[in-house]
Design goal:
about 450 residues, 32 strands, Coronin, coiled coil
Length: about 450
Amino acid sequence: MAFVRKSHFRHVFGTAAKKDKCYEGFNCSKNSVESPYCAVNPKFLAVIIASAGGGAFLVLRHDEVGRIDPEHGRVGGHKQDVLDVAWNPFDDNMIASSSEDTTVKIWQIPDEGLGKTILDQPLLTLEGSHQRKTHQVLWHPVANNILLSASFDPLIVIWNLETGEPAQEIDCHPDLIYSIDWNTNGSLLATTCKDKKIRVIDARKGNVIQETDGHEGAKPQRVAFCGNLGVLFTCGFSKMSARQYAVWNAKTLENLALEEIDQSNAVLFIHYDPDTKMIYLAGKGDSIIRYYELVSEAPYCHWLTNYSASVPQRGVCFMPKRGCDVTVNEVAKCFKIVAKGYCEPISFTVPRKSELFQEDLFPDCASDEPALTTDEWLEGKDADPKLMSLRPEGSGGAKAAKREKKGLAALGKKAPKKKQADDEEVSLALDIFAVIKKLQTQVEAQDKRIKALEEKTANL
């Protein structure tokens, strides 16, 4: 008798947005570095573009769909091509960019977007440590104002943005670093390198804890640190240039699973969703996005489905889970860049008959509040990410609830209840009435005094 493995995501399917909900008319970067060329958060989409006389990238609001105005504002403060961009997970208006000019810059984007404004003054410029192209930037998953950058040196620098200085410089790779990822609490790093080694590194001390031989092929391999499952997930190539994925024990780097995918030569980008333990694989030059589910026992990785399109992608970025629309059971959303300057959102949904909130599809996810301050992390403290519920609240739904939460969090206040607000209004009205009464009494006393003085003056 055959048994079907139980999975909440067995019937997930991807749907591309209609043309009037897509973005077009921009000139995507043609740089050959292995980069996704885009980044997204619940407010904005950033796309690295080809630019003469320096590097630049577009920042688009999600409602700025259709053909992009040729005069649309851009962020253009780098002297050479921008190679990577990353949004701050704790501030939807802050983005980091790295460039061939060896610098990393931090930018603040206004809520209304850029319009026709050209933004060329960064909040902060990080320089001096890297001597060659800086090809990757990555924010810390739980600590505020901690940013990682990697270059062709090969050097990894962990920056303290409060001081603008390096907190740690990690120089343990003999060759080009292909890929880096933080673990769940940001205490460890996993890296892949041109020397075909996989390494686990202590992020604060900079020393290698474990290393092992990775995929045997010479082409780039990438890694995702699936810390809540205690494994690493990598994609690479065999000696015969077949694409593979592998699962490794995060503590010992023992190989737990190794499977061949296909014979394509495109490098696969990995997106890991720690809330649902899902893996998405999107190859640069592929027209397919693969969807897998990770488990903690053999065979560790289960293929679920593929999303197929007619046009190959040049880059892919994924929306943070807090930006997904739970009212339509959207478990993931990605933005696919194609070479002709076109970006289409792709929504991955799970069909359910009920319109109620599906708790099994949407466990609590990482929130937009840091769990640690910069100093706490540098002093050695660890913490898991702060979580938030995606359950819709009131008629505004999940997104409205999250916007209210974000705004109040920025002010460091809690949302007042309606009764409390009414009580405060009554109290304020009583205070105003008391002040008016006091002023009236003072005026009457002054009138009597003036009248008495007038009588004395008349007698004189």
